[in-house]
Design the sequence.
C-alpha cells in the first residue's frame, strides 16, 4: 500500500444511482489509506444509501443542504471547494454530469463543484442506453474539455438486468486511480519543462504559407501529462486546434520558427527539461512578399527562393548545461535508426524519440503513436502503438526514472 493518500483531503460526492451502495466501500478504503474524507450527497441519493452509514465510515458529518439546521448555520460551498485536494463524484449520474457540464447550480453539490480549484474526477454509473446517449456523451466530452477527469463506466450486468456499459468502476479501481493521480502529481513537482509542439508556418505572402502535417497532439499530450505530474510547463505551440486544459501550463502561441525560437530562448535558462516535439520548418522564404503574389499569364513554373531557418534544437543544444535534459523528436521515412542517432550528436540531445511513418496508426494526426526512445549512450526502448496521452505519460515516467532519481 502506498502512502499517496495520507492526509489527502477528499470530497466524495454521492449522487442518486443504485451504485451509491459502493460509496460505502469506497469511503472505507479511502479512510483506510489515511485520507480525510467529507461526503456530500444530493437529496435523492439519500434514498439509496443513508447519510448515517457514510458519516460513520468517513468520521465526518455528511453534507446535503446549503443550510445545516434551523439555527441559520450553513455549509459554505466556497470553503468546501477550496478545502479539497480532489473531488470525486461516485456514482456520477447522467443528471449530475449534465448539470456540471452546463454550470447548473441548484444544490450544494453543484455549488461546491463550481467553487472548486482542485481536480475533479467523475465516475459515471447509469443504464447502458443513458450512458451511450449522445447528450450524455457530449456532456462527458464537455467535462473533459473543462479539465475534469473521468473514470469510464465498465461493462457488465446493470441494475435494469441489461448487460452493457454503464457499471460504475469498482471501489478498488477508483482507489488505484486516485493513488496514481496523487503519485503522478508528485514526481515532476520541482521541475520546469519547456515543450515545443505543433507545426510552424512560414509566410510566403500575406495569404500563403509553408507548413506541414503536424497536429501537435504528441506535444500537447506531453504538456498535459507533465502538468498533471506537477511540473510547471511552458508550452510553445505552432498552429493546432487543441485546447490547453491544465492551469499549470503557460501557453505561447507562435507562427514561425523564429518566433518559436525566441520564446524558447527566453525560457531556456530556467528550464530543467526541454522537449522539442514541434515540427519546425527547416527553410523559410528569403523574402516574404508584401502583396499577394499574382498568377502570371503564360508562366507555368514558379520558383520560390528559401533560406535556412533557425534550428531551435541545435541552438539550444549548444547552450545546454549539465543539469538540463534535452529531448528531441525525429520523424524519418528511411534509415530511421541511423538518422536518429546522427541527430542526437548534431543537436546535442540526451534522448531522441523516433517516430516511424511506417506503422499504421502512428505519426501525424492520429490519436495513437509508436515510438523508439534512443539515449545518447545508445540505449533503446520501444513503446508499442498506444494512445498518445498514455504514451506521453509512460515517456515522462521513464525520463524521470532515468534522469532525475
Ligand atoms: N527542430 C528544431 N528546429 C528546427 C528543426 C528541427 O528545433 N529548425 C527539432 C525538432 O523539434 C525535433 C528535432 O529537431 O525535435 C529533429 O527534427 P527533424 O525535422 O526530424 O530534423 P531536422 O534537423 O529538420 O532534419 P531533417 O529534416 O533533415 O530530417
Sequence:
Amino acid at each position: 500500500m502506498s502512502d499517496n493518500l495520507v492526509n489527502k483531503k477528499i470530497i466524495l460526492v454521492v449522487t442518486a444511482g443504485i451504485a451509491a451502495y459502493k460509496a460505502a466501500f469506497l469511503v472505507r478504503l479511502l479512510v483506510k489509506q489515511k485520507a480525510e474524507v467529507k461526503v456530500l450527497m444530493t437529496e435523492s441519493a439519500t434514498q439509496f444509501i443513508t447519510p448515517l452509514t457514510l458519516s460513520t465510515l468517513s468520521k465526518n458529518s455528511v453534507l446535503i443542504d446549503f443550510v445545516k439546521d434551523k439555527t441559520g448555520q450553513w455549509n459554505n460551498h466556497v470553503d468546501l471547494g477550496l478545502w479539497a485536494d480532489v473531488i470525486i463524484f461516485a456514482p456520477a449520474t447522467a443528471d449530475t454530469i449534465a448539470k456540471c457540464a452546463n454550470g447548473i447550480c441548484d444544490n450544494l453539490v453543484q455549488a461546491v463543484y463550481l467553487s472548486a480549484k482542485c481536480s475533479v474526477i467523475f465516475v459515471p454509473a447509469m443504464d447502458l442506453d443513458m450512458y451511450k446517449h449522445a447528450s450524455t456523451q457530449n456532456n462527458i466530452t464537455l467535462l473533459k474539455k473543462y479539465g475534469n477527469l473521468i473514470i469510464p463506466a465498465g461493462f457488465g450486468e446493470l441494475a435494469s438486468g441489461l448487460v452493457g456499459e454503464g457499471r460504475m468502476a469498482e471501489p478498488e479501481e477508483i482507489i488505484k486511480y486516485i493513488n496514481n493521480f496523487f503519485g503522478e502529481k508528485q514526481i515532476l513537482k520541482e521541475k520546469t519543462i519547456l515543450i515545443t509542439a505543433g507545426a510552424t508556418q512560414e509566410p510566403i505572402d500575406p495569404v500563403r504559407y509553408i507548413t506541414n502535417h503536424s497536429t501537435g497532439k504528441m506535444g500537447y499530450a506531453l504538456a498535459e501529462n507533465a502538468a498533471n505530474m506537477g511540473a510547471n510547463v511552458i508550452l510553445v505551440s505552432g498552429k493546432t486546434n487543441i485546447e490547453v486544459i491544465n492551469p499549470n501550463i503557460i501557453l505561447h502561441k507562435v507562427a514561425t520558427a523564429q518566433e518559436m525560437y525566441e520564446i524558447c530562448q527566453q525560457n531556456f535558462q530556467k528550464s530543467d527539461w526541454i522537449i522539442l516535439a514541434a515540427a519546425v520548418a527547416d527553410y523559410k522564404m528569403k523574402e516574404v512578399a508584401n502583396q499577394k503574389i499574382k498568377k502570371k499569364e503564360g508562366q507555368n513554373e514558379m520558383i520560390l527562393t528559401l533560406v535556412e531557418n533557425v534550428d531551435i534544437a541545435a541552438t539550444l543544444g549548444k547552450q545546454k548545461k549539465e543539469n538540463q535534459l534535452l529531448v528531441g523528436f525525429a520523424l524519418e521515412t528511411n534509415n530511421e535508426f541511423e538518422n536518429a542517432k546522427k541527430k542526437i550528436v548534431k543537436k546535442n540531445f540526451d534522448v531522441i524519440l523516433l517516430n516511424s511513418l511506417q506503422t499504421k496508426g502512428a505519426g501525424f494526426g492520429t490519436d495513437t503513436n509508436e515510438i523508439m526512445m534512443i539515449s545518447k549512450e545508445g540505449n533503446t526502448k520501444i513503446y508499442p502503438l498506444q494512445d498518445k496521452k498514455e504514451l506521453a505519460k509512460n515517456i515522462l515516467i521513464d525520463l524521470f526514472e532515468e534522469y532525475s532519481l
